[in-house]
Each structure stands twice: as C-alpha cells, then as structure tokens.
Amino acid sequence: MSKEAKLSIHRDINLPLDEEQLIETGLEMTQPFMQLMMCYKGAMMEVETKFKVLNEQFSLQYDRQPISAIKSRLKNPLSIVRKLRRYQFPVSVESIEANLNDIAGVRVICSFKDDVYALARALSDQDDIEILRIKDYIANPKPNGYRSLHLIVAVPIFLKDEKKVMRAEIQFRTIAMDAWASLEHQLRYKKDMYFSEEMARELKACADLSAEVDQRMNHLQSIVLKEEDNKTYKDSI
C-alpha cells in the first residue's frame, strides 16, 4: 500500500497523521494495524447505532428520549502503546486485540440515573451483544467521587467476506456525572499545577452534591411518570 493510501485511511478513521510518532511506537502504519483500527471503528459505529435506535424507541413508546448525547472515540496509537507497556504486554497488533478492551469507546449521557440502567438492560437483552464485564461506579463510586457505569461488550461487525467480533467499552453517565467528570479532569490534569489534598476533598464534596442532585431529579422523574400512569388509567375508564 502506498504512503498516500495509508494516510488516506488514517484520515478516514481519525487517527494522528504523524508517521514518525507511529514508527516510534513500533506499530507504524502497517496494513494489519490499520485493518484492526478500522474494525474497532466499525464496532464503535455499531454500538452508537444501537443506542440511537433505542433512543428512538423510547421516544416513541414513552414520549421522551433518555439519551442526552452519545460521544465516541478511538484510542490513539501512542495511548495504545503506553497502555501496553504499562501492563508489560508486547507491542503488536495481536497484543492489542488480545489484551486491550477500550480501543473503541462509547459514552452515553443520560438524563436520569434510572435511564442509565434501563439502557444498559436494553442493550444486554440484544442477542448479538455479549456483556463481558460490568463495573458499577454509580453504586460504588471511586474514592475521588467518580460515578459511571462501565460495560465491556463484544459486538459483531460484518466485513466484505467475514464476521468479526470486536470489544468495546461503554460508559453510561447522567448529565451531572459527565459534567463533574469533565471538570474534574480539567482541574486535576492542568499543566504545571500541583493538585492538593484540599482540592481533592473539595472535588469529592462536589461529586457528592452532584449525586444528591441526580437522586432528587430521579425522584421527581418517578413522580411525573406515576402521575402520567394515573392519568392514562383514568382516561381509559
């Protein structure tokens, strides 16, 4: 494959175009690596589509959309190599596929906490999806206050002449959880800045307040749904 063709594929799957950086990682822009990343992008697109369909179904059935936003990303080659080396895995295409679960990532931002679990259940009920791992940081938040529901899933993609099963990571958050996580990341990893214990405690307190808001909004939503059910019942009499 010519260099121009490789760069074209690279642009199509939104990977960095710095070939020297890729050469340093030992992966380069080889055909097997590009093919693997294309498959991960396909898995990411499949998962996104599933949630878009579920959102439409919920909208039709319940007259509201539980998903506020869907975000997705492919881990870039340098991040892939750093993770392989951190866990002392070989740096190779085969090692990426065997050892890493989060090359393809999809984040589903929900309006309410109950929506998180409803969507996770709806996804797990689909017969072409296999749930490989669940980490519930909503029920069991991280020490810093981080909350999210993480799933590792296996999803099939269909190529020209084969079906291939790929892994992807899905993160479910409420709007409040996502806002806190985004701001926490900006503050904690700000360049040339010392992150003190006092700041960590304040962020944890903000996370707890955010969780309380989520809980109260979830309660209000349940009241609204109950009133709607009562009205529907009365109208049917």
TrEMBL record:
Pathway: Purine metabolism; ppGpp biosynthesis; ppGpp from GTP: step 1/2. One of its GO terms (biological process) is guanosine tetraphosphate biosynthetic process. InterPro entries: GTP_Pyrophosphokinase, NT_sf, RelA_SpoT. It comes from Facklamia languida CCUG 37842. Pfam families: RelA_SpoT. SMART domains: RelA_SpoT. PANTHER family: GTP PYROPHOSPHOKINASE YJBM, GTP PYROPHOSPHOKINASE YWAC. This is RelA/SpoT domain-containing protein. Residues 72-195 form the RelA/SpoT domain.
